[in-house]
Design goal:
The structure is a homodimer of 734-residue chains.
Chain A (H helix, E strand, L loop, with lengths): L23 H7 L3 H24 L5 H6 L1 H11 L14 E4 L5 H11 L6 H4 L31 H20 L11 E5 L7 H12 L5 E7 L2 E2 L2 E2 L8 H7 L3 E5 L6 H13 L6 E6 L21 H10 L12 H6 L2 H23 L1 H12 L21 E2 H15 L3 E5 L3 H4 L28 E3 L4 H13 L6 E7 L7 H9 L4 E6 L17 H7 L4 E3 L4 H13 L4 E5 L4 E2 L8 H5 L3 E4 L6 E5 L4 H15 L3 E5 L3 H5 L3 H8 L7 E4 L13 E3 L10 H7 L4 H18 L1 H4 L4 E2 L6
Parallel strand pairs in A: 1-2, 2-3, 3-7, 6-7, 9-10, 9-11, 11-12, 12-14, 13-14, 17-18, 17-19, 19-20, 20-21
Antiparallel strand pairs in A: 4-5, 8-15, 16-18
Pfam families (chains A, B): Transket_pyr, Transketolase_C_1, Transketolase_N
Protein name (chains A, B): transketolase
Catalytic activity (chains A, B): D-sedoheptulose 7-phosphate + D-glyceraldehyde 3-phosphate = aldehydo-D-ribose 5-phosphate + D-xylulose 5-phosphate
Chain lengths: 734, 734
């Protein structure tokens, strides 16, 4: 997605601009007339036939819900939403999220009708085609103008929408001043029956209610059908009562198929509600309305077939011989939308200009935020190596030493934790919680929407998914920092993946990252999780070995504007290596930690297991007369980016020196860089950290002894004898 | 966990045994006396001091909630639960799940007091110690007598409990007959504030309400504290109203700290409720009750320190000089529990015996189920190679061909889908849905508790977590088969992991497993997910290449009694290779698919990408004059189990033949078996399957050409020149 930009100030306002101008669309809704009703009926029929045609051409797609939601689409794109089709990135636009992303053809169709330039009819026809230039993929993708977030995996979108609404609340509280509602957009989110079943959605719903995000409106396409058939097959709860219990206002529309006026009225009521709560608009629709399989699951995920498409068109009063028909009346109907958009942009530009005169400093800071730039030079804030304690330090503590001053000074950062404040060290002096201002002051709970510390509760998945929304509001405006135990980033993984797929910058602070985490046992000891994140495209997984490397991890994360970073940290204290460790080395993924001429072996040390490499090196020298060099290898992806010459020089594998990686994880993936591994091949064990290491053979004498045997074999049989067959040196398998 | 066994029939019953005998504990509760109240007070004080001592000795653990839940513990283990401490695996025992697993010391303590043989005071003292023989790990583990499931990652336990309750409902509906309530146990589950925030718990709660599991009682330790402090920081919803909206009955206890009688009354009411719903018992407690930081988050996850522990003891009327004190009165108080257990076992044995006389066939089948044995020889049900169509077949269809007859005939199998019935082909003829019998017959929705087809809704995580409960009810009695798109096993991953950690057999049918899934796009195309499951201990991740290999995958999965299996399947049609593919080969993980003497290169084909290997081989021969052999490699873990001689023979890497793996996944992990890979290094793209393959360079001529270049280099420079540096041959990186 291109960098958002505020429109240039085309018409400087002579005096203060009131927010009243934003309300013009309300009057349109109120003036909804009989004529409109007739035209909208044509629009509905047109949209449904078009969707049926588009799915039919390549025999696939999801037509049913898209047809059922036609009237909701008219209400949103014609009457209710505030946006500018010709400037999809207008900063104060309403955000729209299609959580039921498989119905994307519906969104593409309305984007075409209201005049998003790139969304031509020709493009609509590329849906499900083999065209690689298509901007109509099977699920909405953030790279497309007018799409706020990529959706598809159910439940993610509604969580993203919570993040988008939070971003508005936060920016509004930070920058709006009396008479200047600079940030005042509404977030709209469409969900289907399925989204409301997913855990991540339920977590996000709880949080939106807790934070009283009254700028968030979730529209429920209640067609009571999922792939398997009736929703009753798997869900018979009282959705409205559940939403109300979660702190939401609930509105209902009985006829969502055709009654555009009722939908508009409900959506306008939702936006203007004074309940101070997010609003859930439950709209009853019929899947595949207009077809003979209306209300049936068969209308969900397949084309109708030529006969039924012909029938749909005939029933709708269209000639079944013709396809992709959009009458001029339909285009005319939406023709005023562009103008409304220009007016919105213009009004906002005037408002921003006037704000600039009244609130000079805030305005220039706001301008930087809009541009997606940091408001301070963070390179000056990251502590220098000499500022770290030389005594053993847990890398989770190092992360606090680096991140706390960043969080204190960079307004871009919103830092939160999935209920592990005492463990993850992310609290900075003077932090204010992101909370509704009237939450529970009587109980000593403080905070307001300007707050940048987020208590996510025990909701790792929503934490990451909502953070994607924060990051997607306008790239660079908010940089979310999440935190939890590394193991629980498995709960968050589907959302971390969506962040990587969308190239959204985020920093995930993942502490307690090895068996060294100790007593909590195998449920809390990640063995295999790094294999996932090292394989995941567009993501940095970094395991720093000490404070200096932790600083490097933050530099990498802050510099990676188009991807999330996981910084993987120890619970336990780690020795510091100021003479060897290097933040610049981290940026190269791997680097020479201790060089050694005439080396017999290269030890690859990683994160909290670096200490075993360093100690084993000494024992190899003193007890076995072997010379070992050490490579620190905090990040495979960063290393992959280096030129071959660098890789060769660091790993020296072409010189016949065998390489052994030492890490208390499954070896999977290290085979690319090492000939042997001292690794884990089972789950962990509940023991104090040091004892857990010992239990699994992580003890320097044992490690050195196994490595010396391996090196002897290499010396005896030649390096080529051991290449092509990765060797597992850890025999303490439980 | 040892295999469960029904007690031998010590006292054959002369006539039909009524279920009345099971109710003796109800009368105990009703007769709760003043004397009991005094003794229970001593018990509460003892338990709290003991927990404070046990955390203090090694300066760690979670004392606060364990102390707050003392009265609940007395109510459960002394008065309400039906179990036999001396036979922890008594088949019809009540199941207890500690979803807030960090409070495990509480459970261990009561297990000690009621007389679980292995849970000695000495063992209690091993909590957080370095003793490797400890059965008191930091979270409860299934391997310990009396622990039903491993818990710790929040939200998992309550989902497991739903599975345990389902298992009871299903077995009861299948085997109970009038007068013979063979399976009649209750499932109890303890949750804290945090569990109720996790998405997986919320999904499971919806399902339990939907299925009206009135044999499930969830006890909410409502202390309103999590790590960060007050629950109000992150959760202000109306928990009771939310549970009621989800179809649960709600009961409350105001004083959960001390009023054992009120708790017993509530729990007895919950069990005897006629609401036909699962019951949520909301019990108000105080974290760290009895200490000076009662009600504070500081009591949550750390020892109190010696001074406060002394104060706790003094306040409780104990001598602060003494530690780990358990007065005889306390042991005496629980001394009747063993007897009740014997009686329960005896009654049940009599009941089973009488049942055997009345219902001969059912009884012998039931006996097999209790033993955890299949009721039929499944090896006779798996279709033979010649029964598969020779025409191109999607492996998801092959999976249906194999699994449908298994599901039809093996009562052990409970097969379900996360709302993808039309896609995953798991429906067999005559399948009955697992549903409450009175669900919605008027809407044509049928099913009852005997049903073995489960509509999970769009809840992948709960599907896997609840399935762990089904599998844990009694190992081998129920074999859950789940299904969804492979990509959504990322949502399910935390529960799949818990299944692997607990060595619970399950089969996960993961369809749409590569970019070949097509139009749904990158959100649905798994690139990196296999890296996780290939690295996960105790789990088989199998990607079959055709129907025969799919049969092999099922044979492997059914044979793997102590681990879950993911069978990874294509959406798209795949060529069949009856002359090459082998189910026995699958069991070895990898095998020679096409041998070739004087081979220039070994191609490793995997799953749906086997066709590229086969075609590339032909092009290499015809266009480049190169001889290629092919290894099919469906499962890395199974291959790892083979002797080195077999590995060498299959891969022939010691003969200087370079190996190239062809798979449309990230290469991570293949470096162990291959010298080069034709792999993915980015996320996928929304295009029809075949076009998506082309877009990413999966086209036989291109593949052959790149491989021939690689082979030429090897011939030119020698095999050793390319070893030690994995080569990525796919240059179509997007």
């Amino acid at each position: 997605m291109a960098q958002a930009s505020a429109k240039p100030n085309r018409n400087p306002a002579p005096d203060l601009v009131s927010t009243e101008k934003f309300n013009h669309l309300e009057s349109i809704a109120v003036n909804f007339s009989r004529r409109d009703a007739e035209t909208t009926n044509l629009v509905l029929r047109t949209v449904r036939c078009l969707i049926a045609d588009l799915c039919e051409q390549f025999k696939g797609g999801h037509p049913g819900s898209a047809m059922g939601m036609a009237a909701i689409g008219v209400a949103l794109w014609k009457y209710v939403m505030r946006y500018s089709p010709e400037n999809p990135n207008f900063f104060n636009r309403d955000r729209f999220v299609l959580s039921n992303g498989h119905t994307c053809l519906w969104q593409y169709t309305f984007m075409h009708l209201v005049g998003y330039k790139s969304m031509t009819l020709d493009q609509l026809k590329s849906y499900h085609s083999t065209r690689t230039d298509s901007i109509c993929p099977g699920h909405p993708e953030i790279e497309i103008d007018g799409i706020e977030v990529t959706t598809g995996p159910l439940g993610q979108g509604i969580a993203n929408a919570v993040g988008l609404a939070m971003a508005t609340k936060h920016l509004a509280a930070t920058y709006n001043r009396p008479g200047f509602n600079l940030v005042s957009n509404t977030t709209w989110c469409m969900v289907g029956d399925a989204c409301l079943q997913e855990g991540v959605a339920l977590e996000a719903i709880s949080l939106a209610g807790h934070w009283k995000l009254d700028n968030l409106i979730v529209i429920y396409d209640n067609n009571q059908i999922t792939c398997d058939g009736s929703v009753d097959l798997a869900n018979t709860e009282d959705a409205n009562a559940k939403m109300a219990a979660s702190g939401w206002e609930v509105l209902e529309v009985a006829d969502g198929n055709d009654n555009v006026e009722a939908i508009v009225a409900a959506l306008v009521a939702a936006r203007s509600s004074k309940s101070g709560k997010p609003v859930f608009v439950n709209i009853k629709t019929t899947i595949g309305v207009g077809s003979r399989i209306a209300g049936d699951a068969r209308a969900h995920g397949a084309a109708f077939g030529p006969q039924e498409v012909a029938n749909i068109k005939e029933t709708a009063g269209f000639n079944p011989e013709n396809s992709f028909v959009i009458p001029d009346t339909v285009y005319d109907f939406f023709s005023d939308v562009k103008g409304h958009g220009w007016q919105l942009e213009n009004d906002w530009a005037e408002l921003v200009a006037a704000y600039g005169e009244e609130h000079l400093d805030l305005a220039s800071e706001f301008a930087l935020r809009v541009k997606g730039e940091f408001t301070e030079d963070w390179t000056q804030i990251v502590p220098a190596k000499e500022n770290f304690p030389a005594t053993p330090t847990a890398s989770r503590k190092s992360a606090g030493l680096v991140c706390n001053p960043l969080a204190a000074r960079l307004k871009t950062l919103m830092v939160g934790t999935a209920d592990l404040t005492p463990s993850v060290n992310m609290v900075w002096k003077g932090k204010v919680d992101f909370q509704h201002p009237n939450l529970r002051p009587s109980c000593g709970i403080t905070g307001d929407y300007t707050g940048r510390y987020i208590h996510w509760g025990v909701r790792e998945h929503a934490m990451a998914a909502i953070s994607n929304g924060l990051a997607a509001f306008n790239k660079g405006t908010i940089l979310p920092v999440t935190s939890s135990f590394f193991m629980f980033y498995l709960y968050a993984a589907p959302a971390v993946r969506m962040g990587a797929l969308q190239r959204l910058q985020a920093i995930h602070i993942a502490t307690h990252d090895s068996i060294g985490t100790g007593e909590d046992g195998p449920t809390h000891q990640p063995i295999e999780l790094a294999a996932l994140y090292r394989a995941m495209p567009n993501l940095l997984y970094i395991r720093p070995a000490d404070s200096e490397e932790t600083a490097g991890a933050f530099v990498a994360a802050l510099s990676a504007l188009d991807m999330p970073t996981i910084i993987s940290l120890s619970r336990q204290s780690l020795p510091q290596y100021p003479d060897h460790s290097s933040r610049d080395g981290v940026l190269q993924g791997a680097y020479i930690f201790i060089e050694q001429h005439n080396a017999d072996v290269t030890l690859i040390g990683v994160g909290s297991e670096m200490r075993f490499a360093v100690r084993a090196r000494e024992i190899l020298r003193d007890r076995f007369g072997l010379a070992a060099r050490i490579v620190s290898f905090p990040c495979q992806r960063l290393f992959e980016r280096q030129p071959r010459e660098y890789k060769t020089r660091v790993l020296r594998y072409r010189e016949g020196i065998p390489r052994v990686v030492i890490e208390a994880y499954a070896a999977n993936g290290w085979e690319r860089y090492a000939d042997a591994g001292y690794s884990m091949s089972s789950f962990g064990h509940s023991l104090p950290g040091e004892a857990a290491y010992k239990y699994f053979g992580y003890e320097e004498n044992l490690i050195a002894s196994r490595i010396s045997e391996f090196v002897s074999e290499v010396k005896r049989s030649g390096i080529d004898s051991i290449r092509g067959e990765f060797r597992d040196l850890n025999i303490r398998d439980h």
